[in-house]
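question for whoever is on the cluster today: can someone run the full assembly for these? two chains, 344 residues total. i dont have access anymore since they changed the login thing
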Amino acid sequence: MESKILIVILGASLVNYIPRMLPVVFLSKIRIPGALSQWLDFVPAAVLAALVAQEVFMPGGGLDLSLANKNLLAALPTFAAAILTRSLALTLLAGIASAAALHYFLGL
Amino acid sequence: MDKNKAKNTQSQFTTGIKDALPVVLGYLPLGVAFGVLARSYGVSTGQVAALSILMYSGSGQFIAIGLLKAGLAPLEIITSIFLVNLRYLLLSASIAPFFRKIPSPYLAAAAHGITDETYAVALGRFRNTEATLPYTAGLFTTAYLSWVSGTVLGAAVGNLAGDTARFGLDFALTAMFISLLVMQLNSRPVLMAAVVSGVLSVIIREYLHSGWNVVAATVMAATLGVIFSRWKAKYL
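^ ran it for u. tokens below:
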């Protein structure tokens, strides 16, 4: 576990730094081709949707579409807050409050 | 002359710090939430500090601990984070033209400070005034320090918090993903790609039992998105 975390920390740091650094330092030498830049436009939404779906529909590792799935229930007000406020802080607050309320009142 | 220049440098640095304050207000609570959650997942305070100092990415760090807890292999986790944060390539490329006058070694260091939030603040400022190194240093360093100290503080008090479910903190990661996702949904093709990606992610994980679900779903959905956009531009 220890060495696994270390590998993740170092590897993830590298893949975070390189995409930040290359364009600002070498922009004159790099031109992102049109098709790649169009593809990159889709990546953030696609990857976040893949993560959200995994967290919301399979919180315990397996598919759970029941009303006992706390993440599924908490996701509804959280999505509403995100769409209405477009604010990270307020959405986070709505999500945390919903999850805490479901835990407190329903024991989920 | 030199005195004036020094004064100017100082005032630009101070302006950068002031501009960072709204970012700090977001980073401190989010950082504390990250620290507390990471501790409850068995990540040590030192590892939290290392993550924040070296990786410095809210979304990336939440994904790292979430996928570690889910039991994914390091390469699967690193590739997932790489894909999530490929958007830094776009942020960096779009801010680069403003930095032409700043020498490369400084830029190589400043690049580490680019986040969704500092990028947005800096770009807002650079539309009206020239981008300078002191301003950028003030803005980026302040935001960076607030994130690192917020997460370490959260990790340090994490043990006292006990069961994170009591405070709904176990849902903080998902809530953050939802918020970032909704902010990305700015066109029909992107919305379509997101829905496809979500469905594929669940199907691959549930039926193929693969930890590559996030990566595979993303690559397929983004490719479909490009094909759909091009088809739409041509025929509709």
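summary bc i know u wont read the tokens: Residues 33-106 of chain A form one domain. The radius of gyration of chain A is 19 Å.
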